[in-house]
Amino acid sequence: MKKYTVLVACGAGIATSTVVCERVENLLKDNGINAEVVQCKIAEVASRQEGADLIVSTTILPTTYSIPALSATSYITGIGME
């Protein structure tokens, strides 16, 4: 089974991404998806995208990347989580 890598990024890579990281890890586990979730600063995403499969961001991404990116706003606010 392939192991995926998910980057979870916020402005400082501390508070907000910690909450989202935990929720993403639980979501992946609950759905039987083998993945490593990596917490980082938004400024680090460009250098970490190689080898990653997905970016989950808590802030506006400053550029486009070579892998898919999602906004984590629902995970922070709870609005639209369904």
Q: How does the major sheet shape up?
A: 4 strands, parallel
According to CATH, what is the topology?
Rossmann fold
Strand content: 25-35%
The CATH architecture classification is 3-Layer(aba) Sandwich
Order of helices and strands: EHEHEEH
**Helix coverage percent:** 25-40%
What overall form do the CA principal axes indicate? globular
The total number of structural domains is 1
Structural overview:
One of its GO terms (molecular function) is transferase activity. It is a single chain. By secondary structure, the protein is an alpha/beta fold. It is built from three helices and four strands. The chain has helices at residues 15-30, 45-48, 73-77, and strands spanning 4-10, 35-41, 54-57, 69-71. A four-stranded parallel β-sheet has the order 2-1-3-4, with helices on one face. The longest helix is centred in the N-terminal third of the chain and has 16 residues, at 15-30. The protein is globular, with a radius of gyration of 12 Å. The mean pLDDT is 88.
Short characterization:
Helices cover 30% and strands 26% of the residues. By secondary structure, the protein is an alpha/beta fold.
Please describe the topology of this protein.
Blueprint lengths: L3 E7 L4 H16 L4 E7 L3 H4 L5 E4 L11 E3 L1 H5 L5
Parallel strand pairs: 1-2, 1-3, 3-4
